[in-house]
Amino acid sequence: MDVVEEHDIQDKPTKKKTKKPKKQPKPPHENGNDSMIEKTEPEHVDAPAEFSFPPTFSVSEIKNKQRRHLMFMKLKQEKRKKKKKERDALGDKAPPKEVPKTIENQRVYDETTVNPEDEEVAFDEGTDEFSAYFNRLTNPKVLITTSDRPRGRTVRFCNQLATVIPDAHVYYRRGLALKKVIPQCIARGFTYLMVINEDRKVPNGMVLCHLPDGPTAHFKVSSVRLRKEMKRRGKDPTEHSPEVILNNFTTRLGHSMGRLFAALFPHDPQFVGRQVATFHNQRDFIFFRFHRYIFKNEQRVGIQELGPRFTLKLRSLQKGTFDSKFGEYEWVLKVIIYYQIHVKCCTSKRYAISP
Amino acid sequence: MADKSQVCSVWVGSETGILKGVSLSKKQAFNFCEMSCLSRDQEVCVLGWGDEHETEVLVGSVNGTVKTFSTEKGIFTETRQCGESTQGRFTGIAVTDSALITCVETGLLRVWKEGSTDTVEINAGTNVCRMRQNPSQRNQVATGGKENGLKVWDLERPETPIFTSKNVRNDWLDLRVPEWVRDMSFIPDSDKIVTCTGHHQVRVYDPASPQRRPVLEAHFGEYPLTALSLPANQDSVVVGNTHGELAILDLRKGLVRGCLKGLAGGVRGLQCHPSLPLVATCGLDRFLRVHSLEDRSLQHKVYLKSRLNCNLNSSAVTGDVEEVKEEGGEVDEVWDTMEMINDQAKKRATDEEEAVVTGVEKTTKKRKVVK
């Protein structure tokens, strides 16, 4: 029996073939006069045989997990074949194929989705805080800094971000208050202030403040992968301005966020550099990726991922420059927390922003 | 245009300068503006009723103009220049006996008499955040602002206020408590005034009592309270803060009675209905929401595409609600009213609409994350 079982394991895809050699040794066994074997054998013999099941047998009664799995797979295949045959037999009269329900299918239509021809929204966007950038009156200049006393990982992340975003400058925080930093930035012509918050040696938050008087977005940052950790990555990014891809920013809030990200990069991408920064929004998580592409021919493109990769989730959008105490919020993430018993204690410092 | 404006029960002013009228019974919102000449300096700062019968809406804009919109005719009938944009935004507008009262952020409170160009001017201090009129005694107004305490002025004696509030005592560290009055309201049938501050306090002042300090002080939340309104029944007040948290506070003891959920952005405008237990809120998240005060549930939610600054309720809401209730009953009188409504609905459906019409949905969906 052991030999047969080994056969079974090794020749899984050809299990039907193994059934035949199984059957051959068994009849000689059954023909034996041993009644014990006769009683135990039927369980083993009847299980692989398909035509002599007792009436109330089901696949779940087989105790051996591997055999049970195999039997179940076979059963499903048979069912599928039968269904396909029936469907083909019906031909044109067959009922239409059912579309599986996914989260994206079942979503309730969001009434704030922006219609491209909407005049009011177009006017609103044409005169909002980003209109200076979109009318080509200003060029982006980004200041990247961190919370106080950053550790190595955050520092490296900031440096890599500075290579990805053209005209970005990294400065050490030195415990300065953001409210005092902001007027100085405005005086020096910066258009964006990006503060990477760190907790337990890992970057976990970002405050992105559009400078003259613009909105401040606070994000939760997760899954940060630095360049060394990326598999099959290309060489370091060059100084060329990348193209920007913004996916799925369809609602009104999404539009504001899309404009916020687009205004980080210079207006005209340099196609010579073949670099592209992608902000992909899915289920309220924004995934950032930075790639270099090359067209092999007109249909095929090869891409290499360079640069850091991280995901963002918006926690609040505040009108005006950074003022978490007295500012007015345009959108705040409100989560209903079902209390769970944490094994590790999460300190309240995790999401604190040092002002 | 006229029939659309006659149906509207809530008027909302937006940052893009568009006056929006919302009809809750028909679940539609209409824009009343001239689309060609929209500009940011026409941003609506304040809305007020022009007369007691609620047929005229006064719209105050950033550039200092006050436009009069007639609800019966559906058009802007008059425009008045009441100051320039350099003097600050309008923080309050009111009408008494054919005179218009306006107040701006720099503290200049003016009474514009019709027919004559001279104005009575009162300097209400600097940084005024809000000016409100006493509904029972129309010549009294209250002003308050940042580091500018509550002052009640009588317009017939414009030199000094009839009541100036005093700041509370120093706190337990013997430091001066900062003051920032964001909104106030006169409690009907008494002299008292309720204010909400930017330091998340709600205070009640009583000019009739000898003390100038607040009679009652309550706290709510950790964020500045931006708007306040008194519902029809006494002893409570609805406040909203910059995070979109709305709460009903009890004025007898100063405790929170309940919170209204749903808002995702800062509350800019909050008004309770004069007789029904409903409250309409508008804010930076571009939605107008109507909650019921009894069970704190959301009744209506309207998406209006711009950020909203202020809203104004009309008592016409009672008309809508009563019609809805009558439709439920099966009385002979009701059949007549039902037919009338249908005819009017048909007429409106056939009218060609020039203004943009947006749909309104009643929310039944509940989601964990609020947008």
UniProtKB/TrEMBL annotation, chain A:
Residues 140-323 form the Brix domain. It is found in: Nucleus, Nucleolus. Keywords: Ribosome biogenesis, rRNA processing. GO terms for biological process: maturation of 5.8S rRNA; maturation of LSU-rRNA. SMART domains: Brix. Residues 1-119 are annotated as: Disordered. Its main location: nucleus. This is Ribosome production factor 1.
From TrEMBL, chain B:
InterPro entries: WD40/YVTN_repeat-like_dom_sf, WD40_repeat_dom_sf, WD40_rpt, WDR74/Nsa1. Keywords: Methylation, Nucleus, Phosphoprotein, Repeat, WD repeat. CDD domains: WDR74. It is found in: Nucleus, Nucleolus. One of its GO terms (cellular component) is nucleolus. One of its GO terms (biological process) is ribosomal large subunit biogenesis. Isoform 1 interacts (through WDR repeats) with NVL; the interaction is independent of RNA or pre-60S ribosome particles. Isoform 2 does not interact with NVL. Interacts with MTREX; the interaction dissociation in a late stage of rRNA synthesis is required for appropriate maturation of pre-60S particles and depends on the ATPase activity of NVL. This is WD repeat-containing protein 74. The lineage of its organism: Eukaryota, Metazoa, Chordata, Craniata, Vertebrata.
